[in-house]
Design a protein that fits this description.
With 468 residues, the chain is of the alpha/beta class. It has 16 helices and 24 strands.
Length: 468
């Protein structure tokens, strides 16, 4: 038996390759599926089943393409409705894969069709639970994404409580837990950085699996502090339910090198967004005016989904040379398939052509110290929890996730300062603000990590936030 976790850090997502005696099951595959096909072919194995734990909201799964290319059967839990052929399984339905079996456990709560998959080894012993978004390490799936009709997030949280108590916590402590996500995912509140655990460990450490916890306590704690989901979530759900374009076709249509002249024509004659994915240290020194920075070095795809509202938005790319196709693939993982092309030669070709460029002003944390006597305006674009933990005492909190909703709160006149934890998110924010006409901003180089090493007054008390 082979179990391989394919973990994608940008999405904080775990897909799984399971092989036994010449047959393969894939759980929650990425949109680019060739690696699964190659792995099976290398071992002379056949992909038999493609198990989906639920309709994913945070990425486009590879189930449709993988089924078309291999003949594997797509499997969803009860109540799922798709526009393509799929097995809509019953609770406790058993699927044989070589010498092992995989049993679907219907665990509604995160969504109504949410299911876990219990792998039993060839001796029939419970070996591993592929827990999807029902159970994470240190957390559970958020219950607010599948509200529909009369079903509220509290109802879903109640369903999740029952699913965990009746289907998951009854398993033996040594059963391995393979979740769909880890730290950084927006599908939970406080996920662990670990990507593999056990049922026993989760019973001891996961707040949501506390012994003697009442349903009322569970519902309150699971729903408390939930931030609104990113705008692209329902759009990805729709793609996962209805199908999507083959990623190979997306790459062929998108990976088009454009000369400076052609790039400029596209930018002027379409409503394309210019997306610059270089490192933030390069971006601040020079970029095409009106372009938006979201660097490949961070959690790129989720930030694209959170900040670019329409997955059909035409996009022109500025990438590091050699990273063009990788950027297109990572965009497609969250449903952004409408790339018109990329600037050949990257930003250097634009600069060599003598075209107009813009820059972002920055200041070191030490230099900011001397400005504090003037009571400067500072915006902290970290998440509310980070801000609450500790922040510059005079800083206002406008999380990057919601920046587009709070543009009017930034001053048009007089300098103001922007920072995040280390510099990645603040440069994203600065690029968006510059594109909106705010040229009076100054980025704090090194962010809060640098500020902590200065004498600037800080507080752990929650101050009024600009986020209403």
């Amino acid at each position: 038996m082979i179990i391989k976790q394919i973990y994608t850090g940008c999405l904080a997502q775990g897909a799984y390759y399971i092989e036994s005696n010449g047959e393969v099951a894939i759980i929650d595959p990425l949109r680019e599926v060739q690696d699964y096909i190659d792995s099976a072919a290398k071992n002379n194995a056949k992909i038999k089943y493609i198990f989906e734990t639920h309709f994913h909201a945070d990425f486009v799964s590879g189930h449709v393409t993988l089924a078309e290319k291999t003949g594997g059967k797509i499997v969803y839990g009860p109540t799922a409705k798709t526009s393509f052929d799929a097995i809509i399984a019953e609770d406790h339905q058993v699927f044989k894969v070589g010498d092992i079996t995989i049993t679907l456990l219907h665990t509604p709560g995160h969504t109504m069709e949410s299911s876990c998959f219990l792998l039993k080894d060839k001796q029939g012993k419970d070996h591993a639970l592929f827990s999807g978004d029902t159970l994470f390490l240190g957390d559970v799936g958020r219950p607010d994404l599948a509200q529909k009709g009369d079903i509220t997030e509290k109802d879903l949280a109640g369903f999740l409580f029952d699913s965990l108590r009746n289907k998951v916590m009854t398993l033996a402590d040594d059963v391995i837990v393979y979740p769909a996500h880890g730290a950084g995912s927006a599908c939970g509140k406080n996920l662990s950085k670990e990507t593999v655990g056990t049922i026993g460990n989760q019973k001891e450490t996961n707040y949501a699996l506390r012994a003697n916890m009442t349903k009322e306590e569970f519902v309150k704690e699971v729903t408390d502090g939930l931030l609104p989901p990113p705008a692209y979530f329902p759009l990805n759900v729709k793609l996962n339910k209805e199908g999507y374009q083959d990623i190979d076709d997306v790459i062929e249509n998108s990976a088009k090198p454009l000369s400076v002249e052609a790039f400029e024509i596209h930018a002027n004659e379409t409503d394309a967004l210019i997306l610059d994915v270089r490192h933030q240290s390069e971006f601040v020194k020079g970029f095409i005016p009106q372009s938006i920075f979201i660097g490949l070095g961070g959690t790129f795809a989720p930030w694209v989904g959170a900040l670019i509202k329409d997955i059909k938005q035409p996009i022109l790319l500025i990438t590091p040379e050699g990273e063009e196709e990788a950027t297109i693939i990572r965009l497609s993982r969250v449903g952004f398939d409408n790339v018109l092309g990329y600037l050949e030669g990257s930003f250097n070709s634009w600069k060599k052509a003598g075209k107009e460029i813009d820059t972002i002003s920055s200041i070191t944390a030490d230099a900011l110290t001397t400005k504090m006597k003037d009571n400067p305006i500072i915006f902290d674009v970290r998440k509310p929890g980070e801000y609450a933990s500790e922040h510059v005492i005079i800083a206002e909190n406008t999380p990057l996730d919601f920046l587009n909703d709070h543009i009017t709160e930034f001053p048009k006149k007089g300098d103001f300062y922007v920072h995040c934890a280390g510099g990645y998110r603040s440069v994203i924010a600065a690029s968006i603000l510059k594109a909106r006409g705010f040229h009076n901003l100054i980025d704090i180089d090194g962010g809060y990590d640098a500020i902590k090493n200065t004498s600037i007054e800080r507080s752990a008390a929650v101050c009024p936030s600009t986020l209403k």
